[in-house]
Amino acid sequence: MSGMPDRASGKAPGHTSGKTPGRTPGGTFVGMPAFPRAAHDAVRDPTLRANLRHATRTIRDRRAKAVAELDDWDRLREAGKQIKDHTLRHLGHYLEQLEAAVTAAGGTVHWAADADEANRIVTGLVEATGEREVVKVKSMATQEIGLNEALEAAGIRAYETDLAELIVQLGEDRPSHILVPAIHRNRAEIRDIFRSRMARWGRPAPEGLTDTPAELAEAARLHLREKFLRAKVGISGANFMVAETGTLVVVESEGNGRMCLTLPETLISVVGIEKTVPTWRDLEVFLQTLPRSSTAERMNPYTSTWTGTADGDGPRAFHLVLLDNGRTDTLADEVGRQALRCIRCSACLNVCPVYERAGGHAYGSVYPGPIGAVLSPQLRGTASAIDASLPYASSLCGACYEVCPVAIDIPEVLVHLRERVVQGGEFTRHGAKVTLKPAGGHAAERAAMRAAGLVFAHPGLLRAGQRLAARTRRAHPRTLPGPGRAWSATRDLPAVPAEPFRDWWRRTQEGPGRPERTDGREAGA
Amino acid sequence: MSSRDIVLGRIARALGPAPGEPYDAYEAAVDRGYADRHGDLTVEQTVDLLAANLADYRALVHRTEETGLPELLARLLAARGARAVLVPPGLPPGWLAAADAVRVPDLAGSTPAELDRADSVVTGCALAVAETGTIVLDGSPDQGRRRITLVPDHHVCVVRVPGQVVASVPRALRRLDPLRPLTWISGPSATSDIELDRVEGVHGPRTLEVVLVEGADRACAGTITRG
Ligand code: SF4
């Protein structure tokens, strides 16, 4: 088993279409270069960098203000962590409870062990309605499994209805941010995309469309409205699932979620099993922490909750597809499982100096930024080049931990995963224990470190990273697991937080045996 | 083996034997030491906070006594030029007594495209949350099905104060029934997807007007202190 190529690293048949970039089901984007190379390209793209800098800084400052309004923030954060930890510790129990509650409320529950199975289930459900098109509300789970491509292969058109997702879909592009997937596009680019592409998908862009945000939003409203009003099948994810009641929760801003959840006759929700919370009351924590962490609002414009089907209101049929696809493998790792607490707020992206510079695409996954760096390699294994390099896409400054509303210690998981890449060892893949061989000659490590050098060659950026790191160290007494300590003792990688990244970088850069520059493609191959 | 068994089996192997019965462990596992509400506000101040937070998220806020409600609603609809107004089945009959607009009922057979022809919708609400500036609809007869507050471009929502006002999200959840489909609304629909400029109104109603009406809630007076 060891060294077996990850499913994600191979090219999947029939999934490379002209509509959206090809992606293996549940895997990396096809042909995705490893993080170092992708980051290298991004760092040299001035438009992308300017957009990212503006965007991440704006959200970051607003978030800090929204959080400061609540004097019990730390306690909410701790409660959120505890709720999620408890749920994960008893996940089987709560999933069975959830299943029973959803079923009792008129819904149908399906279980999908992996992406292919989830895609098969959803495709079959859509086909059973006789419809050839569906409206979709932004859902990371369905991106993760490559649902749109699978539907397309079955001759079903999936319309993304989130404005940013629409921009991405029309632009035949990839999302680059959890919350603002088109963060890498500026208004002029968006106008050009609307003008040239909308007609192909439905109602064309209005004549004389300018690039003011209000006009662009109006164009999207008109384009999508006809689709909403005639849609018979809606597909969504969910932010939370309440085990005791069987209630699903979708948090959104634009109203496209409400459209997809309310107007169609059939609703299919594809949700990762880790989105479960035990009780209705638990929402009082997350409905306070999620909007403030995410969009920096006291509350997002729209939150919908529904339990099964309701008489005469909304869809007559409701299907819930519970998705594993690597989550149980992640659960098996005692250090790594905390990544499953993630509520996808994206706060960690906006504070991350690497993300700000490299952009979301460099992570080669629907989960970009710090959370992607810890989640993707766990969901997919570290056998592919991109996944092996992801744990290195960080300076370990700790800013991500500091803002995380469920206190995921991302640096701790990163170090743990680096250890896995470099040292090899046992982990769980598709539910079975496998042994990973150490990356030959530490190729992954070397390649990734070169990437880090590239991203961090900028002194101003490093200073920012260091400031954040200093703040984190105060707030955060971190201990590394035993093997991590041993590993860091025999290598020039510091135990966190013993040595500031900059010092370490200078030292290793100037030290003997510094690897030569290459494009980093050999990483983990 | 079914996928259900596969997934549950993987979970069991990943976790090893779980300590104790989950539900027994649950109360102890979570420290609920966070605030039940923020700040020590009087009933009046709580209503003022609701008004301020609603306005901060660009809902248009109006306040009136119960007796002035029909005139106010008529004025709001007229100012908007609304000719057809969607009406939930249990809207108090007096509310639209002074309005000229044609009442459009939400019939079982109405298609979304037909609803799209209505200019406005007038509803009550289940409750409103002061700290977040949120109104919550639960599909009761004075609010109707979810779709009627979604398709029209103009939503007028009446909140009885102080009876329907709660201070905080925790207090709101305690008063809501999870088995009903709920819609939490905080300002008009918005997007920040284009260079993070906030644009009001993408798919939901682009104009949200909230009417805080006093003296209409004798039946539920005092809930604000309990809620
Ligand atoms: S890891 Fe934490 S901060 Fe990052 S998206 Fe998830 S919940 Fe938010």
Describe the 3D structure:
The complex is a heterodimer of chains A (525) and B (227). Chain A has helices at 35-43, 46-68, 73-89, 91-104, 115-129, 140-144, 147-153, 163-170, 187-201, 213-230, 256-262, 283-294, 327-331, 347-351, 353-358, 369-380, 385-389, 399-403, 410-423, 443-456, 459-475, 482-490, 501-510; strands at 108-112, 133-136, 157-160, 233-236, 240-242, 247-252, 266-272, 276-277, 302-307, 317-323, 425-429, 432-436. In chain A, 48% of the residues lie in helices and 11% in strands. Chain A has 23 helices and 12 strands. Among the domains of chain A are: 35-327, 3-Layer(aba) Sandwich (Rossmann fold), CATH 3.40.50.10420; 442-510, no CATH class. Chain B is an alpha/beta fold. In chain B, strands 1-12-7-4-2-3 form a 6-stranded parallel sheet, with helices on both faces. A 4-stranded mixed sheet of chain B has the order 8-5-6-9. The longest helix of chain B has 14 residues, at 43-56. The radius of gyration of chain B is 21 Å and the shape is globular. Residues 218-227 of chain B have low confidence and may be disordered. Classes of the chains: A alpha/beta (525), B alpha/beta (227). At the A-B interface, helix 2, helix 3, helix 4, strand 1 and helix 8 of A face helix 1, helix 2, helix 6, strand 9 and strand 10 of B. Strand 9 of chain A pairs antiparallel with strand 9 of chain B. Bound molecules: iron/sulfur cluster (SF4). Iron/sulfur cluster binds at residues 293, 342-348, 371, 403-406, 408 of chain A. Iron/sulfur cluster binds next to helix 14 of chain A.
